[in-house]
Design goal:
alpha+beta, Alpha-Beta Plaits, 2 domains
Length: 274
């Protein structure tokens, strides 16, 4: 991916643990590598298809002067995420914030924090079998769109499917979503749970009826297993209501464990039913 580099942008602002730093302020140096596809911009000689690094520099300055943070770690995280949100062409950023006047009472050139943040490609399953099912799905999607750290890229058709798990209940309306997000997997899980709570999902019966159900299927090509998260979702290969809508929006997406794409997994599942 192409890069635009900003090196040692000097900004005077008020960040630090000590009160004097917040009141008197000090100099910071900011460097950034902005990753984007610049082929269209270079081919057309068109700034609107590129990243206006002048605007990025002024944006950094304004954000640093607008807020006061104790930690340069927090400042760096804030800047990285805000730049990704406000400059849509940028896919990834490597950001370094230097503090050359760090008050440690020892001679040093600078202290700095370096972070890399990017838009992650994530796939979600979505379902509902209570009330106005289609409205429930659309409301959940709108709540995802309302989050600054998420972009909804693709939405599959909704399909009606029979419930699994042996609990007698109404059929589900299911679909799949492709989103881009700056959130970590744990942060995304928290957002999903907040959306489910807003729609008043009640967890009383395992595999029971749900007004809304959102699950993380894939997060880039990462394999994650913690107490709260397993990615890819362990039931992908067994769920037609997951694989069928996924075929519509990401048929060529490879499973990082099984090494097969969504279409192949779907065909294998159909063959098992013959």
């Amino acid at each position: 991916m192409d890069q635009i580099k900003i090196t040692n942008l000097e900004v005077f602002s008020h960040h630090g643990v000590y009160k004097e730093e917040n009141v008197l302020g000090q100099k910071f140096l900011v460097s950034a590598a902005l990753y984007a596809d610049l082929s269209e911009a270079s081919g057309r000689d068109d700034l609107s298809k590129s990243v206006d690094y002048g605007k990025v520099c002024h944006f950094i300055k304004d954000e640093m002067e607008k807020y006061t943070f104790k930690l340069i770690e927090t400042l760096t995280e804030h800047l990285a995420r805000k730049i990704l949100i406000n400059f849509p062409v940028i896919e990834k950023i490597q950001l370094e914030v230097k503090k050359p006047w760090a008050p440690i009472l020892l001679p040093l050139e600078t202290v700095s924090v370096v972070m890399e943040r990017k838009w992650h490609r994530v796939y979600l399953s979505i379902g509902s079998n209570l009330g106005d099912k289609e409205n429930n799905l659309n409301t959940a999607i709108e709540l995802l769109k309302a989050d600054d750290l998420c972009r909804v890229a693709s939405i599959s058709s909704f399909i009606l499917t029979a419930p699994v798990g042996g609990v007698e209940q109404d059929d589900f309306l299911n679909g799949a979503l492709e989103i881009k997000t700056i959130r970590t997997p744990e942060e995304l899980l928290k957002l999903i749970q907040e959306i489910e709570n807003k729609l008043k999902r009640v967890r009383t019966i395992n595999w029971g009826p749900r007004i809304i159900d959102l699950d993380i299927l894939y997060y880039d090509q990462e394999v994650i297993k913690t107490e709260t998260l397993t990615i890819p979702h362990p039931e992908i290969i067994n769920r037609e209501f997951v694989l069928k809508p996924m075929c519509e929006i990401a048929a060529d997406l490879n499973h990082p464990i099984y090494g097969k794409n969504v279409y192949q997994l779907y065909q294998e599942l159909l063959n098992k039913k013959i």
